[in-house]
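User: Just a sanity check before I run the rest of the batch. Below are the structure tokens for the first item. I only need the designed sequence back.
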């Protein structure tokens, strides 16, 4: 069976304790539910279905973009004459807010 090339953008947010692999698989299964249903319709056991789904997901070409909500864009400039140590203390050493 030949499948057509399909491009989909899947976007999700990970929490501090989340597993990328688990969330990615869940989102892919939701985005490609129709294709997965068609792929597994003639398979009998859950083991066969899982194997087919895993092969389907592993066949993807994936490009990921990671951003941190606090540092999406960083345009910091040190003012002329400002003490560098004070700048680093004030701007760079900020705690990450969750």
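Assistant: Here's the designed sequence for the first item:
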């Amino acid at each position: 069976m030949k499948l057509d090339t399909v491009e989909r953008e899947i976007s999700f947010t990970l929490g501090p304790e989340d597993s990328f692999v688990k969330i990615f698989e869940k989102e892919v299964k939701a985005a490609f539910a129709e294709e997965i249903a068609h792929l597994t319709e003639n398979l009998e056991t859950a083991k066969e279905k899982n194997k087919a789904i895993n092969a389907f997901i592993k066949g993807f070409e994936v490009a990921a973009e990671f951003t941190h909500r606090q540092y999406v864009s960083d345009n910091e400039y040190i003012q002329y004459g400002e003490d560098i140590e004070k700048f680093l203390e004030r701007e760079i050493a900020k705690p990450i807010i969750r």
